[in-house]
Amino acid sequence: MIRALFVNSVIMAGLALGCARATGQPTAESEYSPPRTVRGEPDLQGVWQALNAAAWNLEDHGGATGVPAGKSVVEGGSIPYQPWALEKRKENFANRRTADPEAHCDMPGVPRITYMPYPFQILQLGRYVAINYEYLNLTRYIYMDKTPRPGPDVIDFYMGASDGHWDGNTLVIDTTNFNDRTWLDRAGNFHSDKLHVVERFTRTGRDHLQYEVTIEDPKVFTRPWKISMPLYRRLEKDAELLEYECYAYLEEDGAQGREK
Amino acid sequence: MNRRSLDATVALVACAIALMHAAAAAQNNWRTHLKALPQHVVAPSKTAQGWPDLQGKWRIANRIGGPQHSLEYGIDPQSSAIHDWNRNAREASIVIDPPNGQIPYNEVATARRNEYLRWVYTPIKRQHIDPEARCLLGGVPRATLQGAEIRYAPPFVVFVNLGRTSDMGGYTRVIPMDGRPFPNDTLKLTKGVSRGHWEGHTLVVETRNQNDKTWFDSHGSFHSDQITVVERITMVDADTMYYQATIVDPDVFTRPWTIATTWNRARNESERQWEEGCWEGERDVEHMLEAGRRAYAAGHRGIHEHKDPDKGEQFAPAVKNRPALSKAEGPVRPN
User: Fold this and answer.
1) Are A77 and A226 in contact (CB under 8 A)?
2) In chain B, what residues touch A247 (CB-CB under 8 Å)?
3) Contact assignment for B49 to A38 by CB distance below 8 Å
4) Are B214 and B130 in contact (CB under 8 A)?
């Protein structure tokens, strides 16, 4: 199986290279050949972090107190909301200081957790890839072995249920079974429990990953849409995840808001 | 029956009993709690990078570290009065050193520990409630008392699926094996910072940099932020792991002390890990405080204590007739 995967990877890489040559447009994926793990997979392991303002707002936005200005990471610039959903987003934005699930320290969902201002660590453990996040010490399990996923309407999770596979040198993660309790950023961008997320992690160099996400949700958006951004390796010596235990700090601050 | 045949009979019966136990252990995939590393253990196979291969899902067969479990007394007899499900489930102390099975608190710490104990079942402040029940991360060694899924991603040994009290969710310990130094002592984390190395076939993990927010169990056993923990994990046979942790904290304990548990290989290797949303929608703490404050209003002032069996003390009789708390009493809010 590993061998098959490896052969498959080589073929895919070759195809990608061939296509790039044919179109005369070298793609990032064809330019860099990542080292391999002992299992023969492209090695994406390490401590990574986004370095942009997507956590505050996925779309173009100017600065405000505590908010760094940022260019849109959305392909085409804006999110294709259905009319009712655009109104809902405006309402969310107006109420963001209390309505944002992040303000309550709930698990932040996918893909939001990737571009929050905290590092995460990719660990390729064989049967699954574990993505370990400094934020809340969360771990996502990305099953690479076709471990059955629960049916779409059986059970919901904040972080969804994920399967992964290799597309050439790219780790592709398909995630469903979301609940509707998470947002996509601090600006009120949101989704329903019909959310379907496909993430693509591709190494474009020793210290860079390209992160591309397709977001689909027929209840909220008029069509699937994409975001993309580079992710950066944390280069400090002995970089490792510390912790952000959000609700422990809320409790200490006496602002947990759940104790009447 | 002469002496010789008696001896032979005794030996036979002993053998039969041992065989029965072995059969039961094989059936249940459960091995008697080991109080020390057995003299004869298997030499695990080595991975490509030369590490003894301890990989797999390892679990313990009891509720160590969970609600109502005390490291020193096992399942608390007093809690039996309140929670029928663990009646008769008392398990022995997992403290193997000192030999009396008690955590060697110093004088000041003993007073603080007893204060925590008093309020365990009738909390009137958040600080009275087990940090894990408040969804805080387990520290070390508590996070690993239920076992761990061990995986390797060199230079890291990874303990997946830890903490809290169930086998759902939990957090991941990533343990560097490359000899890197600890951060400065001034950095404090709930999970601490771990560094590992091999001593023969034994995985040795040292953890420093812990803050003072966690307990060792649900019964107020606390530590300071000066704590150092050394865990030693050794494969006994293909299905059994011996786990030992030694705790040093001169601010709180009069001497180092050691716990031991036995892990068994889990059979559900191929299952999918579920998400554990402990905090999300959490209302338990609120309800525990409400109950504790009503008990306080009814005149109860900390009903729980641990006795010292060395001094011939017995546990207080189970609280059979708990006071009925009418709604009319309403909540009180001391402090």
Assistant:
1) no
2) 135, 279
3) yes
4) no
